[in-house]
Amino acid sequence: MRPDTPAAHTAEAERLLRTAAQYPGDREPLLLRAAAHLELANDRPGATALYDDLLAGDPADPHLIRALKASNLWEYGHEAEARAIIDGVRSARPADAAPWEIAAETLEAHDELQSAEAMLTEAANQLLAPGTELSHATRSLLATRHRIRRMLALDHDDRDTLADRLHTGTIPLDELHDPKRLWSLGSSDPTELQAEIARLRSELGTYRTALSRPFPVAVLHWPSGELDELLAAYPELETEYPTHRAHLTDIEASLRELSAAGTPNLGIVRATVPSYEAFAASESLPPSTPALLPQYATTLAARARATPWPPLRTEGCWCDSGRTYGECHGAAQEQSPTSM
């Protein structure tokens, strides 16, 4: 069910909290999702309590949690505290783009465009190194910076040019981020209205999909030893996995096919025989049931076990070959643009 009402968001948050209690190893990402649903349910104090709970421990990504907390606090009247947290995030100079972008978007949402632009420029100067491949989060930050600079009527700089080059949508960033384009919504000309609808679809399509899909579309990856153990115990599954090499090839091919069809938010989840057997037992079905495999993948993804696909070409390949993705399963993929 797509959670479109406060009650549905509250129910989803409660489900995530129960799942976090069952799987303490996945607690941080599950609580972050639960906090997001509480925000959408307008239970902002409840979301703050979850952020505080995470920060009281030893979180993997404290800067991200603080940026999310600041955004939430400002929305229900705690501006001074939110500003202090944002200043702290900026002073910490996180190595990941997400905390920078969330903090800057909080400033933007409260009409502090100059401060947001300055923060994103500082982040871009830190995160962009010559010759390095850019992560999805850094690309998103550059697009956000482009949008804010467009609203401030600033001339393009080299970072805006890079954002333009990295943008893959059919509508150019300059057009998407043109503040004057909203004026066309008052037009009675069907052609102008249709053009605006196309622009809005291009800009918001990713966000609509994210709302309807709370976790990645994930494909199972059985490491070699685990697959041998699985097939030894359940030979009925050999039709699904004729060889380990074929299994790895199928993973990459499936993900590329989904990507080509426009499916965002793709991932890979690592399977183990004990985990799979426990899942089968919870479903009251024998592990030899092929239909359980995609359900198992979905369950692992819902527990935040998915690794985003594709990795950067310079990162280790998802198959654990010891080679980079660009040298291994990403070798046939077109080279992505780099920062410089």
Compact description:
This protein is mainly alpha-helical. It has 15 helices and 3 strands.
User: How many H/I helices?
Assistant: 15
Write the CATH homologous superfamily of the largest domain. Tetratricopeptide repeat domain
Name the helicity range.
55-70%
Oligomeric state as shown: single chain
User: Based on helices, strands and strand pairing, what is the structural class?
Assistant: mainly alpha
Order of helices and strands: HHHHHHHHHHHEHHEHHE
- CATH architecture designation of the largest domain: Alpha Horseshoe
Plain-language structure description:
Residues about 205-215 and about 335-340 have low confidence and may be disordered. The chain is built from 15 helices and 3 strands. The radius of gyration is 22 Å and the shape is globular. The chain has helices spanning about 5-20, 25-40, 45-55, 60-75, 80-90, 95-110, 115-125, 135-150, 160-165, 175, 190-210, 225-235, 245-260, 275-280, 290-300, and strands at about 215-220, 265-270, 305-310. With about 350 residues, it is mainly alpha-helical. About 60% of the residues lie in helices and about 5% in strands. A 3-stranded mixed beta sheet has the order 1-2-3, sandwiched between helices. The longest helix has 23 residues, at about 190-210. It folds into 2 domains: about 5-210, Serine Threonine Protein Phosphatase 5, Tetratricopeptide repeat (Alpha Horseshoe); about 215-310, no CATH class.
